[in-house]
Prior knowledge:
CATH architecture of the largest domain: 2-Layer Sandwich
Number of domains: 3
Distance between the termini: 55 Å
CATH topology of the largest domain: D-amino Acid Aminotransferase, Chain A, domain 1
Radius of gyration: 22 Å
Strand content: 25-35%
Helix content: 25-40%
Number of helices: 15
Structural class: alpha+beta
Shape: globular
Bound molecules: adenosine-5'-diphosphate
Low-confidence stretches: none
Strand order of the largest sheet: 13-12-9-10-11-14-19-17
Number of strands: 20
Amino acid sequence: MFHKILIANRGEIALRVLRAAKELGIQTVAVHSTADADAMHVRLADESVCIGPPASRDSYLNIHQILAACEITGADAVHPGYGFLSENAKFSEILDAHNLTFIGPRAEHIRVMGDKIEAKRTAKRLGIPVVPGSEGAVTDDVEAKRIAAEIGYPVLVKASAGGGGRGMKVAKTEADLSDALANARNEAGAAFGDDAVYIEKYLAKPRHIEVQIMGDGKGNAIHLGERDCSLQRRHQKVWEEANSPALNVEQRMKIGEICSRAVADLGYSGAGTIEFLYEDGEFYFIEMNTRLQVEHPVTEAITGIDLVHEQIRVASGGGLSVTQDEVRFQGHAIECRINAEDARTFVPSPGVITHFHTPGGLGVRVDSGVYSGYKIPPYYDSLIGKLIVHGRNRVECMMRLRRALDEFVVDGINSTLPLFRDLVGNVDVANGDYDIHWLENYLANKD
Ligand code: ADP
């Protein structure tokens, strides 16, 4: 087992990783920018190192500084959290070259899944269902028209290097296709320095359903069921739940087994998420994230398995603590991502939180790095906390969520708490009757 883990992240996820390390009796090192000197993960860590000024590229993305912090403190492993360096294959290789362990998958797997065309090709080879579309990049318009006619309009032009919904254009008919291709290429070239694009069928009303997997790097893997993350705003997840209200047990086990077999064949190590669009009973792979995800606690709630413990175990060569047969899915869990934003306009609201009170009681978990008097710096994402509620079934979970939201107090800044109070009382949400466009439509038609 590791002696000391350096946590290369900030905010709630840094605290989340720190808690897991402490439980395993491992020393912790926090790194932080000058803007985060007062952060909770810095206070609670055994040691801390300031790694630079506020801008992420000079601190949380600064590989040299993080290496130096490992050297100074004698850390033997690095947990990257999510975002920042978590899907940076080069970072994992550099750590390797310095005899430090990257708590995550091997560099080659990060690299393959970071390129959407390669990821899709690999998924298909491993028996995962994918969205019908071009085999690889499309380079000329004639070929594109032939492929689009074959799969049927509307089609979506997507950037191979895409992320955050950028470099994506819909073509409703053949007349739109040339423009969609040119626009997607331009956007992708400007944003990612890579203008490779591909074509796939545009699904009209899918749900976003993703499968959590864990591999031991030695050819064994398990799945921990799915999460439904269809409630999104601008392709950002807002509300996540496990299990998906749309799946039954057979569907769950079937897609779960496809995913666990695929990552076992790949020799994948650590936590990963295989994301699908789901429409009319069919799953369509869109991408794989080779890291811990923001919404992982809903999976922890229904399985009782600590995903960060498992990540640390696997990275240290200890293997998984459970077999597939031992995984039990119990009850229902929902997570609300509470942001420091206006609940109506979504304008960020940095500043001092004058009063912060979190709900408690059975089945209620709050993962947050903030506290009363904490000043939210303007430099990073706007997540202030995640409320995760568990119940024996979805109805109980929703009742508990409503109660927990009522108890939650965030004063001094704007937060998205009012949005969740609205959603928990909405009939479609209560029925689990929504797709990836539902929240945008709801927000557009509110008032
Ligand atoms: P990114 O990495 O940019 O987030 P993804 O491939 O994960 O890109 O897709 C982001 C979102 O775009 C999905 O959650 C979904 O809302 C939408 N999307 C992606 N592919 C399709 C498709 N083939 N049909 C319809 N919507 C899609």
